[in-house]
Amino acid sequence: MSTLLNLLWFVLGGWISGLLWLLASVILAITIIGLPWVPATLRLASFSAWPFGRAVVSRYHGQEVSLLLNIVWFVFAGWWLALHHLVLAVLLVVTLIGIPFAIQHVKLALISLAPVGKTVIEV
Questions:
Q1: What is the pTM of this model?
Q2: Burial of residue 51, with CB atoms counted within 10 A of its CB: 0-12 exposed, 13-18 middle, 19 or more buried
Q3: CB atoms within 10 A of CB 87
Q4: What element of type H or E holds 87?
Q5: What is the residue range of 13's domain?
C-alpha cells in the first residue's frame, strides 16, 4: 500500500518537493556557512519525495550542536516551510481523499521546523 501511495505522491507533486529540497541543499553547499545544514536538507529531499512507509526520528548524539543549528534554521527557514506544509495539509484534509497526503504534509511540517539531528527510518 505504501508503494502505491508513494507513487501517487511522487506523480502528484512529491518530485517537485524533493527537487526543491535538493536545490536548497545545493545552494547551502555553495555557501560555506550553509554546509552544516546540507545533510539535513538531503534527508528532507529524500523523505519529501517518498514519505510513505518511513518515519522521522531523533538521533541522540550531538544534541547541543543540533539545538543551535535548529534555532538558526527555524529563524531563517523553518517556520515558513512548516507553514507552507500546514496550509497544504488543511487544503488536502478538506477533500477527504487527500487525508493520507495531509498527514504526510504534517510530518514534513514538523521536520521542517528542526531538521538537524533527525534521521529517516523505514517503518
A1: 0.83
A2: buried
A3: 12
A4: helix 79-94
A5: 2-122
Domains contained in the chain, number = 1
Residue 60 near residue 114, CB atoms below 8 Å: no
φ/ψ of residue 119, rounded to 5: -140, 160
Rounded (10°) CA dihedral 90, 98, 23, 46: 120
DSSP annotation of 116 reads: T
Contact 83, 15 (CB under 8 A): no
Measure the CA angle with vertex 41, ends 35 and 45; round to 5°: 145
pLDDT value, residue 18:
87
**In whole angstroms, what is the distance from residue 34 CA to residue 12 CA?**
30
- Whether the CA torsion 110, 39, 36, 117 is positive or negative: it is positive
From CA 39, how far away is CA 8, in angstroms rounded? 26
Residue with cell 538521533: 59
Question: Residue ranges of the chain with pLDDT lower than 50?
Answer: none
Percent helix / strand / coil, the chain, rounded to 5: 75, 10, 15
Return the C-alpha cell found at 6: 508513494
C-alpha cell at 70: 535548529
